[in-house]
Design goal:
The protein has 196 residues and is an alpha/beta fold. Helix content is 34%, strand content 20%. The chain is built from seven helices and six strands. It is globular, with a radius of gyration of 16 Å. 41% of the residues are buried.
């Protein structure tokens, strides 16, 4: 799974400040993770700090996205990306990759857990927090703020709990249909979370 955190909810001019990813193989966590704080090379708005707790001072000595891009791409290569609200996160990640002259993530297969949850629970709240609460998943590691690696671990538990609830067997899929939110279970999955 993957989760990036940005400096704001609009990718235009806003930047990723944290990326977390955990690897699943055969729907089992491997223990491999990727976690980086990123210097956004711009001011972090106070409104954003209220969500993730990261300030300009916290990020001033961190590497830029350009400095971590190759390591990030290496970690996620060869897998299916599992992202909650993929459209939102991919906009930020693709923007960052464009800025450093790297290919965007359009060639990656992904599973959008928000789309899966909306199919299963069409009339209910399907945020990551709502799903974690509904499934009884412990969020105490989060403390007061959203953190990329903590939220990625929460996302992996939500994903693994959601799978058996779906009427279609996701593990049997050999082709990813990005519009369906479903993907293959035969490749390593990378649960991603970004902070912007």
């Amino acid at each position: 799974g993957l989760d990036p955190n940005p400096t704001d909810t609009n990718p235009s001019g806003h930047r990723v400040i944290e990326i977390g990813a955990v690897e699943l193989l055969g729907h089992v966590p491997t223990g491999k993770t990727f976690h980086k704080y990123v210097n956004p090379e711009r001011n972090v708005p106070k409104e954003s700090t209220m969500i993730h707790g990261l300030t300009n001072e916290d990020l001033s000595d961190k590497p830029t996205f350009q400095m971590i891009a190759d390591d990030f791409l290496t970690f996620i290569s060869g897998g299916v990306l599992i992202i909650h609200n993929a459209e939102f996160d991919l906009k930020f990640l693709n923007y960052e990759l464009k800025l450093v002259n790297k290919e965007d993530l359009s060639n990656f297969d992904f599973i959008d857990t928000l789309k899966l949850a909306r199919k299963k629970f069409p009339s209910r709240q399907n945020s990551l927090d709502a799903l974690a609460s509904r499934f009884g998943i412990d969020r105490s590691a989060r403390k007061d703020f959203h953190g990329a690696l903590v939220d990625t671990n929460i996302l992996s538990k939500v994903y693994l709990t959601l799978l058996p609830l779906l009427s279609k067997g996701i593990a049997a899929f050999s082709v990813v249909d990005p519009t369906s939110g479903l993907g293959t279970g035969s490749l390593p999955s990378k649960i991603l979370y970004k902070s912007c």
